[in-house]
Amino acid sequence: MESDGTQSSGARYERDRFVALAFCWADFLVEADPERRIVFAAGPTESILGVASSALIGTELQSMIAESDRPLVEQLFLVAQRRGRIENVTVRLQGVHGLTQPLSLAGYCLADLGSHYFLAFRANHSLPSRTRSGDRPGRDLGTGLLEGGSFSDVVAARINAFRKSGQDVQVSLLSLDGFEALHERLSPADQDNLTRTVAATLRASSAGGDSAAILDPGKFSLLHEASLDIRQLAQQIGDFARQSDPLGEGVTVESATIGVDDPSVSDEDLANSLLYTFNRFRDTSGGGFSLAKLSTNISTLMSEAVNSVNAFRRVVASGEFDVAFQPIVNANSGEIHHYEGLCRFRGEMGEGSPYRHIAFAEETGLIWQFDLAMVRKVVEWMAVATAKNRTGIAVNVSGHSVGTFAYANELHKLLRQNMWTRGQLLFEITESARMSDLESANGFIASLRNESYRVCLDDFGAGAASFQYLSALDVDVVKLDGSAVRNAQRAAKGEAFLTALARLCNSLGVETIAEMIDTPRGLDFVRKCGIQYVQGFLFGRPSRRLEDFDPLPQGQLFGGARPAARRG
Q1: Per the domain annotation, does 538 fall within a domain?
Q2: Structural domain harbouring 73
Q3: CA within 20 to 30 Å of 432's CA: 235, 358, 459, 546, which one?
Q4: 371 backbone φψ class: left, alpha, beta (φ>0; ψ -120 to 50)
Q5: Residues 318, 537: contact at Cβ < 8 Å?
Q6: What is the pLDDT of residues 345-362, one digit of tens each?
Q7: What CATH number is given to the structural domain containing 213?
Q8: What is the pLDDT of residues 415-431, one digit of tens each?
Q9: Cβ contacts of 430 within 8 Å, gap of 6 or more
């Protein structure tokens, strides 16, 4: 044990008590004074950091914290000053030989001893977590926050874990109105500082220090002790945003808290209830909905979630949805190559964008059943339409469905019963759900291509995994995400990037489609880049009637004869 010998007898007593208790849990211990200088260190720091504990005395504590985690640790100090303790927060340290593996940090602050901090670090510790896929929960790399897709599962498991340890916890949602506008006013360095500080504040205030998530830009959630003053936390975030803003406007922070005090609720029901809540939170932009309406208890939300799941199942079982079509057009000739079949829900589910219903189905495990129902619906339509016109139709397949055995089995059974769809039915695999087992995914793709069905990789460029997918998956077509195409039009190097991508795909024997082509300027841009096919409002909004695309809207942009659909 090492100390600088300047402590009061009270501080030494607390330190000795801390050492006695913490050594049964921690790998090494540190005490820092109010200026966050290390005044005591004990344990095998040489094997972890590459330096003896005696060498740490007198150094600033933050100097041994990984740079990316320093905002988090700074917020932990502030939280410890208010609440007295820090519980099981995952951090990494900066050692002589680089960053350490993640360590769990716990400790407390004694205000009556001049705010001394007693900290314990332990390797290989993690809070319980569960995801439906069995994978580790996803994290936003820039902030360390959990990602929305797995947060409901993680929180559900952790709620019950904290309950067993006697902790009373709640879930809160925070909406930072004006966050994206503020982001645009800041320099890249200030953007990073703002995002990291908000994330660190949320993580440090969350139960266990690692139960906070980013659900959407400017929308966050955290699991926290019931004693946390969520309004004070919201004010703290608002104050920092205002200080960061060159205009001094900042953001408006709204919050809502959900009680989760019903021990009879299972992990699965709790996860679905929270998922239902998070989806509503993401979609607070319309329908007279306000964040305050989410401040309720878990029993009410669970009832609403069960009703929502059952309603979706009824829609799938009864086929209460229609198919709308949008043409995919040859960028040079204007000939319609095929159509994409898009779902249009009926009744109450028909209000707003279908995407939120699809996202809900993905996250609740219902998506493979819907994807199969969509294929059936399209095949039924084609059975009638093919007598008049051999028109190719593309249907979407979620990344979740690709990895579901029941979907693949039922799909191939359906296709064997309708072998006449070969060469006419296409499958677009969407990136809305990440595919983790690319070898199995490629096996699914190969099974379709072997039966003469073409496969398209949709949403290309929307996520970081796009190029990994392109290298690992043997697809026939790549559809470029509309936002990526628009960004390329604005960026200085956008044309060069898109041109290079088109050439790469061409060399791989993969065709390219650019979506969200809504203006003649966009059409000219992708033509110049060498993209082969286009899709967008320029050629008409999705319609249930193919007659709406004959003649093709804006067909004069291609010159010559009136473009029509490709036959046979």
Answers
A1: yes
A2: 2-123
A3: 546
A4: alpha
A5: no
A6: 887 676 667 777 787 787
A7: 3.30.70.270
A8: 999 999 998 999 999 86
A9: 396, 397, 398, 399, 458, 459
